[in-house]
Amino acid sequence: MERLQSIYYGKDKGYCRICGLEKELTRDHFPPNSSGNNQKIIINCGKSKIYSQNGMKYRTLCQKCNGELLSQLDNDLKKVYTQFQEFQNDIRIYNSGFVGINVNQYRIARALLGHYLAVCFSDDYENEIKKPLDNSPFYEEIRKFILGELINPSMVKIYYWYYPYDDIRFCQYEAYIPFMARGNMRATFGGLLKYYPLAYWIVNIKNSSILPNKLKNLILKDEVTLMRIRSSEIFDIDFIEKPESEAAILMSNNGRIYSEKY
Questions:
Q1: How do 99-104 and 156-162 pair as beta strands?
Q2: Which residue range is the domain that position 182 belongs to?
Q3: CB distance 177 to 192 below 8 Å
Q4: What is the spatial distance between Cα 58 and Cα 26, in angstroms, rounded to a whole number?
């Protein structure tokens, strides 16, 4: 069975991608159901396609991590969606070019990383879900941060920008080399989560030799802060996924999943 179908239908029991314990597995929804995720879509990964209602679904998390931890954190992701919808309905604020949302960015980061880990697999899901988790420092730090065991991650920074598109996109890990045409091999390493109204770039800042400093990043403080979004600056739907004139991207084809309305 192809990778996408394997993760979507999944196994009844395996190692949870967050806590790492072998348990009964439940389906994670991305985007969360509370974030406007109510349409029928076609999920694509390579040559594989699946029709799905209410977003992407992956049977990779245990009930405690999915139904208790992530469901609570998703309430903060919901605030991003609902507040942005309110601003869009007020054309005077929306036309100002900036939208300010009062949210807990620390909890948003934990929620996003939980959904990110739910889909992070090699090509061999069938065997990987039966084994203990990969203990690479990057993913181990993400897990501890999601579980609340780590307050200030040293390897992860999450950048964001306005994403006014219906397509839902996921990229597990890539190397983005912005100036390769000039012979400059400095790269940014990380994964992508894109769904309306924002796109997120989960960057491994320890391995990256250049960071996207022109983009805003989430403030990892466990308190409500102002999240500023430049609604007047609209990037192409493929931003970071496809290289610009001087750039290059190194990634696995199986590491990218995207969906569109059906």
A1: unpaired
A2: 77-261
A3: no
A4: 8
